[in-house]
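pasting Sulfur carrier protein FdhD for the record, 286 residues
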Amino acid sequence: MKAVEEGVERVEVRRVEHGVVREAADVVLLEEPLELRVVTDEERTVNLTMRTPGHDEDLALGWLLSEGVISKASDVTALDAWRTGETVLPNVLRATLREGLHAPPRFTWTSSACGVCGIGGLERLAVRAERPSWTEDALDLDLVLDAPRRLRERQVLFDATGGAHGAALFTSSGDLLATREDIGRHNAVDKIVGWALRQAALPLSNTFLVVSGRVGYDIASKAVLAGIPVLVSVSAPSSLAVRLCEAFGVTLLSFVRERRCTVYAGGERLGLKNASPSARKGEDET
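structre below
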């Protein structure tokens, strides 16, 4: 393995095409552990996640919000890599909480595949979250259908490796606020939420979030906790994600590809009318 660039690592591979083998250089997406330690009256590790290095502070802030530890960026008085003397560990972050706040009650392991491990369920979420707010007119469906393309154009790590998930936050008028990439879908969303925390922009009313993969409970719950009223994905939702969006009044559009989509919840926010009986009949027959 050769020199490491930001977000990727160069490797030597063998490509096989039509029975011909040749040596070649390639790049793979970086995946490294990030240990998060919380400092109160004591210091202890609260989370270990596999992530792509970059925007680690945003990732930590987003995770702390999703776990109910903090509600604003100023709840964290210091956030930096662990160090002692001249030794610095960039894969270990120390978050010092303001007085009166407490660390999560248990350690959480989060893989790059699933971010649900540290959160309870719809009942627990209902205690902590409010329905995201939308005070604008109906959201322009054309803006939403074009948003995955705009996210894809900014996925430089995916272009290089084919292995990075992306998330993008847009205003109701379609202005792009932020994009993030990571090996984990949930990490990309945490990085968006952490960015918004640092901007003092929560709750993210009148915005919509676009994610490059599927939507499960983990992604949907992070959107609800950040106050995002519209969630857009290029792939499928899970049953629990649909139930959560229905319960919290979040508009959920999935399979947003090639100017098509499936609306699973909150279609009224898009100004959609009910399908005519003849249209439903035609769909049922296909």
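Confidence is low (pLDDT under 50) at residues 116-120, 277-286.
The radius of gyration is 20 Å.
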